[in-house]
Amino acid sequence: MGAPLPRDPIADAQRNWESRGWADVAGPMASITAIMRTQQILLARIEAVLKPFGLTFARYELLALLGFAREAQLPMNKASALLQVHPTSVTNAVDRLEAAGLVERSPHPTDGRTTLVRLTPAGRKLATTATVELNAQVFANSGFSPTDVQQLTRILADFRRNAGDFT
């Protein structure tokens, strides 16, 4: 990240919206833009922690998901659904993780159309080590107060539910 700006460009954008006659949507525009910028900041922090491990956040999420799964494996289509990403994204992540020896593919024992992805011991070790670092460097120092965390989690869950993300 570069040097901090002397003032908030999102607040400036909100004032510009208001001066153009869009006051009724200026607040929501500013909130949405702030969420998008916050996502960029948080992702950059996460990616900086994961880079020494040779992981992106998407690949880390898959390793972590498999680490929580019974028997450390899932059908690829279920991993896609749980991660809420397109199946192609999971396939790409599995390709990279498999090449690194962190996961393995295998046919489903009873459904020939389904491929399982399983965490290897090396994948489990890396996921655990990366999680320890993320917990220490990002999640324990999120920049949000405990009250903010609770409120944000509730507000964003309500939005996601209303958007059809889950029931």
Fold topology:
Blueprint: H1 9-19, H2 23-50, H3 57-68, E1 73-75, H4 76-83, H5 87-99, E2 103-107, E3 115-119, H6 121-139, H7 146-162
Helix pairs in contact: 1-2, 2-6, 3-6, 4-5
Main features:
mainly alpha; Arc Repressor Mutant, subunit A; three-stranded antiparallel beta sheet; 7 helices; elongated
Folded structure, characterized:
The chain contains seven helices and three strands; from the N terminus they run αααβααββαα. It has two domains: 9-53; 54-167, Arc Repressor Mutant, subunit A (Orthogonal Bundle), CATH 1.10.10. β2 and β3 (115-119) form a beta hairpin. The two termini are 37 Å apart. The chain has a three-stranded antiparallel sheet. With 167 residues, it is mainly α.
Amount of beta strand: 5-15%
**Which descriptor suits the 3D outline?**
elongated
Do you know the CATH architecture of the largest domain? Orthogonal Bundle
Q: Helicity, in percent? A: 55-70%
CATH fold-level assignment of the largest domain: Arc Repressor Mutant, subunit A
CATH C-level of the largest domain: Mainly Alpha
Regions with pLDDT < 50 over 5+ consecutive residues?
none
Q: How many runs of DSSP E, i.e. beta strands? A: 3
Radius of gyration: 20 Å
Number of domains: 2
Largest sheet: 3 strands, antiparallel
- Average pLDDT: 96
Helices and strands, in N-to-C order? HHHEHHEEHH
Q: CATH superfamily membership of the largest domain, which one?
A: Winged helix-like DNA-binding domain superfamily/Winged helix DNA-binding domain
Number of DSSP helical runs: 7
